[in-house]
Specification:
10 helices; eight-stranded parallel sheet; single chain; binds zinc ion
Amino acid sequence: MKTHAIIYHEDYNKYDLGVDHPLIGDKPKNTMTFLKEKSVLSQFQIFTPKKATEADLLTVHDLSYVEHVKQLSQTGGWLSEDTPAPKGIFEVASLATGGSMCAGEKLFEGFETTVNPLGGFHHTSKGHSSGFCFFNDIAITIEYLRQKHKLKRFLIIDLDVHHGNGTQDIYIDDKTVLNLSFHQDGRTLYPGTGSVETIGREDAVGYTVNLPFPPGTGGVSYLKAFEAIVPPITRQFNPEIILYQSGVDTHHADPLADLNLTYQTYYHLAKHIAALSKETCQKLLVLLGGGYNSNACIKSYYNIFCGLLGNKDFLEEEEIPDTDPEQVQHTVNQLKHYLSEYWSL
Ligand SMILES: [Zn+2]
């Protein structure tokens, strides 16, 4: 039996916010085609998801918010300034959410790694959203697994270039969900949050971890920071599942942000995370997340798959020098200081 699964539906490609919008509507299809060409897809079992039900959405979101999205979906409109709501988006966003839930469920049916290519909508909180997101599929999947499989320790590793503000709002006071977010410094990028000082609230202090990077950070500094923070915290927390938001808008060619990661960085990150999953829970849920340069993001996702499979046939390009490695090291030291009461780093 295969140990890797991918969740896919043709209707994923209807998550399209318009031709002038940076989100690439047919990215799921293009990703699948490239994976097939590269003979990677055959190593994954493919499953078709069902839409999340309204009851599923309500495990995280306020009823008024769900009703609002449904209403917008009937007429067309705008969820926020950067997020148009085309007709039918309620159904497509529910399907994307159902895809993440299905990927979560498959981890309890014998699969060790599962991927939802249309997942990782981390900007949606309980009753508010922007940043091209409608429902927080990460949180809805966590609540589904909490209820169905009685899990008590969820680890989120969110490496999208944007801070996962919605997920943070939902879990800032919940110590069953350890939320690690690496992102471009909020003083220089949407959504503006995720400062290194924000480490959780009430009895969950230490369970929100933010590492902001200055613009111009390259793969070498990024990987060094990852190695300093993620493996030790993961081992100490000992998660029952790892949810990896693997956004590739950190790539140097991405039009929306200013980090300078290269293709090989994604291979190494995915390989590290797969090894951490093997070492702890053997349950890794990958949500492909953001990426707005169509050529670069398909290749970056491919390298993530290579990292997950341990396939050495990954793509490489010339490394881009870090503009300010001292600043990155300084922030890593600050983070270690803030977390020192909670984790041994
Ligand atoms: Zn992003």
